[in-house]
Each structure stands twice: as C-alpha cells, then as structure tokens.
Amino acid sequence: MSxxxxxxxxxxxxxxxxxxxxxxxxxxxxxxxxxxxxKLFEFMQRRAPGKNAYSTPRKEADAPEFLSGVVGDTTxxxxxxxxxxxxxxxxxxxxxxxxxxxxxxxxxxxYIKYGEDRDYTGGGHFSGRLxxxxxxxxxxxxxxLEEKGIYICSRIxxxxxxxxxxxxxxxxxxxxxxxNTGLPFNPASDGDFPTISxxxxxxxxxxxxxxxxxxDSVGGVIECAVFGIPAGVGDPMxxxxxxxxxxxxxxxxxxKGIEFGNGFEAAALTGSENNDEFCLKEGKIETVTNNCGxxxxxxxxxxxxxxxxxxxxxxxxxxxxxxxxxxxKEETTLVVPGRHDPCIVPRAVPCIEAAAALAVYDALLSC
Amino acid sequence: MSxxxxxxxxxxxxxxxxxxxxxxxxxxxxxxxxxxxxKLFEFMQRRAPGKNAYSTPRKEADAPEFLSGVVGDTTxxxxxxxxxxxxxxxxxxxxxxxxxxxxxxxxxxxYIKYGEDRDYTGGGHFSGRLxxxxxxxxxxxxxxLEEKGIYICSRIxxxxxxxxxxxxxxxxxxxxxxxNTGLPFNPASDGDFPTISxxxxxxxxxxxxxxxxxxDSVGGVIECAVFGIPAGVGDPMxxxxxxxxxxxxxxxxxxKGIEFGNGFEAAALTGSENNDEFCLKEGKIETVTNNCGxxxxxxxxxxxxxxxxxxxxxxxxxxxxxxxxxxxKEETTLVVPGRHDPCIVPRAVPCIEAAAALAVYDALLSC
Amino acid sequence: MSxxxxxxxxxxxxxxxxxxxxxxxxxxxxxxxxxxxxKLFEFMQRRAPGKNAYSTPRKEADAPEFLSGVVGDTTxxxxxxxxxxxxxxxxxxxxxxxxxxxxxxxxxxxYIKYGEDRDYTGGGHFSGRLxxxxxxxxxxxxxxLEEKGIYICSRIxxxxxxxxxxxxxxxxxxxxxxxNTGLPFNPASDGDFPTISxxxxxxxxxxxxxxxxxxDSVGGVIECAVFGIPAGVGDPMxxxxxxxxxxxxxxxxxxKGIEFGNGFEAAALTGSENNDEFCLKEGKIETVTNNCGxxxxxxxxxxxxxxxxxxxxxxxxxxxxxxxxxxxKEETTLVVPGRHDPCIVPRAVPCIEAAAALAVYDALLSC
Amino acid sequence: MSxxxxxxxxxxxxxxxxxxxxxxxxxxxxxxxxxxxxKLFEFMQRRAPGKNAYSTPRKEADAPEFLSGVVGDTTxxxxxxxxxxxxxxxxxxxxxxxxxxxxxxxxxxxYIKYGEDRDYTGGGHFSGRLxxxxxxxxxxxxxxLEEKGIYICSRIxxxxxxxxxxxxxxxxxxxxxxxNTGLPFNPASDGDFPTISxxxxxxxxxxxxxxxxxxDSVGGVIECAVFGIPAGVGDPMxxxxxxxxxxxxxxxxxxKGIEFGNGFEAAALTGSENNDEFCLKEGKIETVTNNCGxxxxxxxxxxxxxxxxxxxxxxxxxxxxxxxxxxxKEETTLVVPGRHDPCIVPRAVPCIEAAAALAVYDALLSC
Lengths: 367, 367, 367, 367
Prior knowledge:
4 copies of one chain form a homotetramer. Chain A is of the alpha+beta class.
C-alpha cells in the first residue's frame, strides 16, 4: 500500500494536486489528546507556498479541516481525517505535460505506471503539494512528542555548494531552555530559512535568487535532530530507527539520500575514530561523541538522534530541456509551464520534521 | 514486527549468533521455481567468514538446510524455511560483554531494550551473522530475478579514504554480454573483493591489513546497480523504490547511509545539471544521463537502478576503549575479545545484493 | 489498525455518527476503471435510512462526494477518498447516553476503551452509520467484480424465527440470465427486502411491525452467494476465504456468527454425507453437492461461494432496561432515546454484499 | 501472507505434512518470559496423534525443538522459532492422490492454486499436522495469559447430533478455584475428550467408533471460553475480537462456522430478550446475562468471552467416493488410503484454545 505508513499508527495520504481535496487519515492516536490547532496551522505555514522569493507563487490558505476523530479540539480515539480543499488550481498550465514529461519529474514514470488515465495535472499524486497532509499528521505527532519532552529541530545544512556553519546539537541545546517558555524552537530566528549562521543563510538565499533568475533551480541538504528521545526506542533488523525514518522520509518528493550520525563520513574513518565511547554524565550513561547519531543496532541510545537528507534541485525549471512526445514518440524540447519553487529546501524542512516525528512517535508506541 | 520484511513476499529472519540455529522463512514465492542450490551456496560463500585476512577466523560451512517449502529443488508454493545450525560458537569469548558494552555496538541498546534476559553472546540477534539467512533469501531472489533478465552487480566504491575508479554501469554493461554465457557477474574477477580498478583494490586491502595490525578497523562504501529492471516498478509515496530498498538495507548491521543516483552530490547541483533529459535510443525512451539512479517519483524509469551505502568501521576492535560497567555503573575500559572482521565491507557486498534483490522482487510482484 | 482492511487493496473507514463527515479511503484500485456513480448511489440507497417502516426515520441523502483518486468518473490509480457529510444529526438525543450505556450496545465498551473523551453521540465510530462508507467501497468492488463476471446475491434467510423458503443458488442461477441484460440482480423483486418467498417475506415484515409496536426489535439471518468466482482464489491457513470474509464481515455491527456452506449443520453429518464428490459437467470439474460453500482449504473450488451471518436484534429499544450510571456507579433504568431501526437486517443486506465484494476482490488480486 | 497472523505478535507457520520439518516463528514476545517446556509438551500432547481409537495411528513424539528466541527456558526478546522434525512419514500412501483429489479435502484446490509442483503428499501445507506448530505458539500464549490471570477452557459441545449438557461458564467457574493450585483446567477430568456430562461424552465416543467401523467420519461443535480477560480489549471495526478470533480460527482445517455468545440463536430473539442488562456485582459493572459472549462493538466487556465453532467431519474416509482423475480428466472413484482420524474434534480442542490464546494475547498488546 503505497500511501500508508506505520506499524502502530497508520497514516494514509490521499489526493492529487488538482483533485477536489487532499488529506490524510491518521489512526492509532489515543483518545483525550488536545490538538492545538493554532500551533498546527503555524507549523503548516512553514511549508505553505507563496510566501517569498524562493517559493511558488501559488497561494493557498492550506488550512486543514478536520472531518473525524476529534470532538472539538480533542481526539476521541478513532481515525482522524483532515482535508485541505484545492481551490487555486490552474490545470491548463499542465496541458502540455500530458504528452511531454518533465525531465527529473515523475511525469514519465506516472505515465508508465498508470497509463492514459493517470492524473497528470499538477503532478497528480506525486506533487509536492501532498506533503501538506503529511505536515498535518506530523504536526500532530510533534505536539504529542513535545508532551513527552521530545523535540525536533532542523536546519538547512547547505544550498548548492554553500554550507551552513556550527553544530546543530550544540546550538539547539542552547535554545532548548527556550522550549520551556513555549517558544517555537528553531536554530535561527528565521523560521522560514533556518540556518545557524545568518551570514551563510543570506548567501544561500542570494544563490537561489541568482539561479531563479536564470530559470534554473538548486538543491540542498537538511539536517534534523530529535532531542529527548529515550534509550531503547526502535527494533532490531527491519524496524530499526534508520529503517523506519528512511521509509517515511523517501516519501517526500526530491529526497535522494539519507545518512545517520556521521553517515558517509564514517565510511572513511577507523573504528577507533568512529566508535562512541561510553561515559557517565551526572550518573547517566552517555557517549563521549555521537558519531552514530543516537542509534546503535537500530535502537536509540539516549543521545540526540541525528540525520541528514539530500534534496535534489527542483526538476521543474523554465530553461529549455530535451524530452519526448509520448503520443508521437518523437524527441522534442520542453519549457516547463506552471508555478514552481526554484528551491524546495526551505519548504521541505517542516516536511522532514513531520516525517521524523511520525516515525519516532510510531516507534515509541512499540515500546 | 522488527524481523519481517515485504509486502508481497514476507521474509522473516530468526536466530541469534549463538542460538541453536539461525534461519529464515520466505513466503510468497510461487510454486514451480527451481532453486539452484549450488549457485546459492556459491553466492553465500561470498559472505562466509574465515576465508582471508580481512574477515573473522570463525569458520562455518554455513550451508543452509531447507526444512519446508520445497520438494527436492523446486518450490511448492508454501513458506520456504531454511536454517543454518550454529556449530562453531565460543560463547565464553563474550562473558565480559555481559557487563561491559562495546562502543559502537548494539550491546548497550540491546541491554536497554531487552534487559537482563537479552542474549548478549556473540551480539545475539544483532550479530552480523544474521545476514547469512538474509543471503539465503536474497540468493533465491537473485535467481528468480535472473529468470526475468534482471541482474544485480556491486563493487566496493571506497575503503577508508581510498576510492575505486571507473563507472560501475559502464563496466558492468561490458560484462553483461558475459551473462548470456551463464557466468557469474562481477565487475572484477576477484569476487571476494570486487573493485573495477585492481590497483585501487590492492591499496584498499593493504590499508585494511595495516589497520588490522593496529588492532583497529575500517569502513567503506558499496555501490550497487540493478540492470534490466523494467520501467514502472515501485509505488508512489511510502512504497517507492528508495523507501523499499532503504527499509531492508538498514537491516544490515553497520549501514549508516544510503543514496540513490548521484544522491548527496545532487544537493550541490542545479536543476539543469541534475535533470536527466529524455531521448530515444533504438526506439526506446531512455534518459541521456542517469543522475536519478533509475528512479523518479519512487518508480523505476527503465534505466539501471543505482545506489550506494555507507558501511561504518567494525565497532569490535582490540584497541582499548572507554566503556561502562552496567552492573556497577562505573566507568571502565574494554579490550574487545572474540573474532571480528577488521573490515566488513567485502562480506557486506553480497548482503547488499541480497537485500536489493529482495526489495526489487517484492516490488515487481506489485506490478 | 482497527479501521483498515485488506492485503492488496487497503480500505480505511473514518468518521463518527455525528462528526463533520464519515468516509473511506480505498487504495489499490487500478487506474482506468470507470465508476458508474448512478449505480453506486442506487446500491447505497439499499442501506439508506428513512425509507420505510422497519428503518430509522433519520433521513440523509448519503450521497458520497469523491475527493480524490478519480478524474471525472475514472480511477487514476491513487487512493480513492469519498466522504458523506453529516447533516441531519440530533446529538441532544444522546445526552443521557453519556452516563447510561445502552445494554447490548458498544456504549459501555467504548467508554472503557476511550474514556471520557470518546465520542458517544450517535454511537460514535461504532454507529451502524459507518457502514455507509463500507458500502461506497463495496459498491465500487461490486462493479469491478461484475466486469470479471462475478456477481454477489443475498437474501434474508430468516427474521426472528420466520424462515424464507427455497434455495438461493438455484433461484439466483435462474436470475443470472437476466444479468446479461444489465438488470439489478436480486432473488426477489423487492430489493429492499429480498426473500425468495414473497409470502414468507410478508410474514417477516409483519413480525417486525409487531415488535416495533411493542418498542422491541428483532434479529435475523442473511445468506450471501458469490457467483462466477474462479477456482484457486484465497490462500491457505490465515488468508483463506473464510478468514478474509469473516474478518471484514465482523466489522459490520450486530453480526454475531458466520458459517460457510452448510456450516454448523455439517457438524452433525458424517463425512460421506458432507463430502462433495467431484464430477464432470460439460468438461468442467464441479462438485455434485456444495456443502463446503465453494471453499476447500481456504481456496475457492469454482462452485458458488456461500455463507450466512447471524444478525442480532437492534440493541436500541424503547422498552425500559436496567443499566448503570457511569458517573454515580449506581444501578438505574434506561429508555433509549433517538431514532433506531426495529430490525437492521434489511439494511444490513447490502453491507454484507459490500463486505463480501471487498474480500473477494482483494483475494483475487493475490492470484 | 497466508501463513502469518497477528498485529503485535507475528506468527508464521511453515512446513508440509511430509517436508523435513514443520515449525513456527513467533515474533513480539517480550524478553524474560519463562517457558515451561514440560507444560507446553503436555498441552501439545492433547492434539498429538496415535493416542486412541478416534485418532490417526500415525505416531510422532511431536516434541518441539527451539532453534532461537530463547536462552535456556527464557525468552530473549527476539523471534522464537521452534520446529518438529517429520520422522514417521509414509508418502507412498499418497501416490494415488496425486491424480485423484479427495472429496471435501484441499487436494483439488491445492492443485488449482499451485499446479503440478504442489506438495500433495500428506495434504502438504493443508494437512491438519500444521496445527502442531500452531499449538507450540498457542501453548506459549496460554502460559503468558495465565500469568495475567486469563484462562482458556473448552469442551466438546456436540459430536454428530449428540449434545453435551450443562453450561461451560458455570462449570468452569467451579473449576476456577482449582486454577490457583496450578492444576490443568478442563471441564471434565478426561482431558482428551472434554465434555461436562461424562455420559454424553461416552455416547459421543461410541458414535465415533460406530462410524469409524463403517469407514466413515463425524463432525462436531467445540465451545471455548476465555476467563479473566479485562474489559476494553479489542478494537472497533475490522480488529474487533470477533474479527481477530475468526481470522485465526479459520486457519484450522475443517472449521466451517463460528459464533460468539448466543450467535445464530440471537437472530431469532428480540432485543429485549437478547440485550444483556447491566448490573453491579460487588461494586463491579457486569451484565446480568452474557448473550453477547463478552464482546460489544468488537471490544470485551469484562464478562467471559464465549464462542463456538463448527468442525466438519474428516473428509478422508475409506468409503468409496466419486472423484476425478486430474491427468485423464475422467470421472473415477476413490478409496482414500493413509491414516486418518474418524473424528478430529477431540484433537481440534487444544488447537482452538491455542488460536484463541494467540488472538487474545495479540489484542492485549494493543491496549
């Protein structure tokens, strides 16, 4: 079942970019949990389009409407369904894409999979727009985790070749005192473009603007940390934390890689460099370093859980590209119409947090 | 269910390093498929221990015994169970590890998860030995895929900082003419240490030997390609090929990262650099480049499916390390006893192929 | 996951009796299938309330609104979500039920399971109203099965102690010639109250009316047959046709028993009486009798699949009953308010057909 | 996956009647649970063949060998695999069945499903012998439930038309005081043929003997009760206790019907007769009657959970029957060779208990 996720919770995402609505059903949330709708909406606004120069001009309120599973603002134990009506669609933008698939996009594979009857408008079920329901579910999971003292924090690690500076965990732990005040928790004050170094952040934004002007797009890397997760979460073998997190993360369009702890860097180290030695800290067993990203044998060790994902550059660019006409089976060229982000990394940040929260919450329920 | 994998097939792996046996059950394989036991055994020998200087001296025949699901050498449609009896165990090696967890290993998290009653001997269920049953299942899947003209090929991309040269796909396609002759398919003639450049391979081996002599260990990167997979395999969102492959791959101990196509490199490119333009080649739709690793929107596009995984250095090293005594809750030091690979990358190669084969075979059954 | 069903399709049902909407998501339906909305609506009308003397006066159009998974009237391969808005709710009817659970109803167990935050209005998620989304999904499955020449037909076997006469299979096979003309397929012309014997049907209706006048309710038995299902559908052990069908059928409120073929009667027979001998009929292997209900070893044998379900009398009656006040923990009495069917059997008939169609369609996809 | 069961536990059963071994893997059992092997073996002996006049003369020790998941007699948290080697097989008995399927047996449907490569010897995967691994798993579950004060008790309700007398719950509750002494818990002292009335039990045995002498077989009904299960176990809709129990129960060969509480009898009652009114008993909420069998809305209400299953007469009889030669496609006759029970009801009793225990234990883990 391609659009469902979870062992103890069950998330199902439905909708196409231009269908009547998009939405999600989330089963397995206990009764009696209060959902802070305002906080949820604020969270979702972080991925909402139309806010600034590096996102698509398509504007939608994207306010979720809860159809079931709640009484007022409190869960009642049954499946929670929320939808977002699609109101601002311009399907005619996509007429040309019926025949000519965009390079780098799922247009072609969707055609192979579903044939003539696929919904190609707006990318159909493959559209980045489907991350909005993911953020509804993940936004709820974030609130449920915060109840347990578990917080998720991310930053943009790099855009193009431009890297952020500083250490996410150290920076965040500094901020963590702020959590108790109920403030939103982000490494930088710029919630829409979270970097530790403001200067590097500005360089990244300038680079995006430059490439946008050229009709091009750029990719980047997002780093995500989960704080406060107890030791012992996750299961061996196929249900380890890496397995669970990567299974949901690759559900976000444009993600092409994931690494935990020091990841690919570990491959170049020796065991004595990479192993995290154990120590006691105020009577609690910790590790001196955290190269493993808080996961050993698939199971959390009580240190912050860290991972990074590679986001490819938006495939929809206005530069002319070679493609194929699927009707005539002839080579042709394409200038992609429609409204697209020159860089989806900033809007992908809350999606990554949402996915991480769902994976962690689901794993916690197995404990 | 931590030790089960699959949607259409269902793989369950059982056993601990020092239990009476380890094994696997594989459901969902059609009746009437002939298993070439000799070929399967040859495949499994690629991960078998005790063969050379960079693997553990523990020697076991590791010959699988089929208990069910076959009549003679032919599947009968019911669950296939095969076991490997554990005969050469030296549990006393592990006495010290009951109290003192190895840095970088699952000893500590296994203790947190399962408490005093965990099976700590030999790493229990977390042992790399559990990849032997994975290779039984994957070895069968490889044979079933080859029937359909789908071949899996890997190489060691790097050990420590030493990188292989050449392009896996180009090299393999050269070899692919050999496939028709029924020859085993590997980029280099050295099946136990597959690199494209023999020279780089020798440097890697020398580096492993050097670190082994220091009582240390090294990590590396493995690249894997799947050839002949048709377009349209995989599903959108949470059952895409990236999701399916990463979910099983992280079931192999010591894997800390995975990337598809150009992966993390894509994050530094622009859309016009990274997009794979479409072209016609002998009437067939292909892409000019293959930066996406053969996957768009989670679904194969007919090009070779490519991914790389980061393997961390073996955590069990004989250099003294800091640890904790779990009984006394005091800091201590540990010199790891037992027999361990200074580098598990070579033996991990067939495991990666096995995992990839199972993921691809399972996804094919959804088509 | 309590509200999901299926191996190859995945049905999720959401909503409470008085939530904003009820609905369903159905994954796994191929692209390019045309849904006849009018026929679907006609099917759903068979379970719709408010039509006659033996159903609740609550009137709702119950017209499903499709939010996703279709383009026009054709499936596009992605999850199909349809909702029914709840418009005619009278929650105040249920105020008393917050504290005083109805005997025979899920009010008490819902309270134990979900506590104070359950949605008790209208029975919440336990309401018979949740069978409306089941009928959306099942109505689609029925259309997909008819494409393959598979037809589902049911009758009311008994109401109270009053039994229908005649044989469902024989009667239906007579009707089956009519199927080719596209006519709705039912043993009796009275689609809302299908019996073979009109006379017995009238007696049943009179009995319902009599008990309704007394403020009481009655139960009954429904018999269901699936025609045209090929041999070889279903799997051994836990995914046999009996397992699959019973798992979904018991999702319909008030079902307390199910039997396949001659069911409980078989327990009183000898093997020589009960075994269905094989014969050739126009070159096709059939059985002389069909005591097994078309299923051997969980797998269909090509004969009509037959089962019967026991429907308990509606628990919501207006006769005074003993209950407990959950707040004061004192014994009390209850006269159930609200609008309820004196007999849900007639409206349960299409629900049984819907459930059977989903189970059969799902099993067919495994073949 | 036909041979797997469970949401929180995962049971997989493998093996064919004449394969090298049969066995089971049970995932999800916590670490640190002691398995009383002797008690387990005693339980399994209740279904073992070769003990008396109403069971097959095939004799096997059927002692399970534990391959993994335990250290000594204590679970270690990882998948438990146990096997029974098949030693006393006489496959030649089955040569004729390759071509001529037994009426009432899965020979024919197995042939349709798996074709020429099915394992037809001894019924293959469809053999009643596969209930031995079910009893290993269920026997463990029974021990785990007893730890929680939950006990399972059954009786033979009827054989042929001969009915037992007395009430299972009342009789058992009398015995329940004996449970505290650790005694095995059965309504009658005859553990191999449990009836409340010894006289009726003797009549049943005589009837079996009579039909056996005629080369025929008989069926029966088994009633099962689960005591001590708390209120609130089970989930609404498709994961209710009825759904969960029936899904596993129909995995036992020859079961053709199941009913909960008063089941099919309820269909003939009025609501005022059938509803179970609430009362207080020593401060605890109970129901005056238990017509619902302890389940409302799929969820337990704290009363004993009661169900009955219909067991068809053994299809393998020595009386001559009509069948078909699958090779020649001609009608023929068959006298079934091999060793078969004239009545499998007595040996099915522990299987029903095993299945019920697994369903209840699995559901408890969701609470």
